[in-house]
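Late entry, zinc ion complex.
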Amino acid sequence: MTADEKFMKAAITQARKAYAIDEVPIGCVIVQNDKIIARGYNRRNIDKNTLAHAELSAIRKASKKTGDWRLEDCTMYVTLEPCQMCAGAIVQSRMKRVVIGSMNAKAGCAGSILNLLQMQQFNHQVEITRGVREEECSQMLSQFFRELRERKKRKADPV
Ligand SMILES: [Zn+2]
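Prediction complete; structure with ligand written out below:
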């Protein structure tokens, strides 16, 4: 197992926490000097908060831990391509690198809809590695949405 695969596995463990509470399973860890310094998972519904994305939660914890808003020597591992809000925060935090599990054609801003992480016009660009444990990350999401559809169907059409 490569180091990237190992840390993505930890991000997947975070995503499973979201899954367990019926949240869209997205998880994230931030690594500094080969050590996980912060973890986060999606809690948007349970917290009733747009800002409760996995990445923002991990960035907040990482800064608390390091005592610095700059995360220049850190790498983020996230199971799904970040949205525009999180990609913006990642650039603002000066994150060195982001490792992505699966891409998100409908909302991703690390190369799908646009690539906020690597705009030459901004003062910081983030290195990107895509497709680490992609299969696992995308299967977890499709399983979640399949179950959600089935549950909704059962509710709408009780036997
Ligand atoms: Zn986000």
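Residues 7 and 77 are 7 Å apart (CA to CA). Will revisit in the morning.
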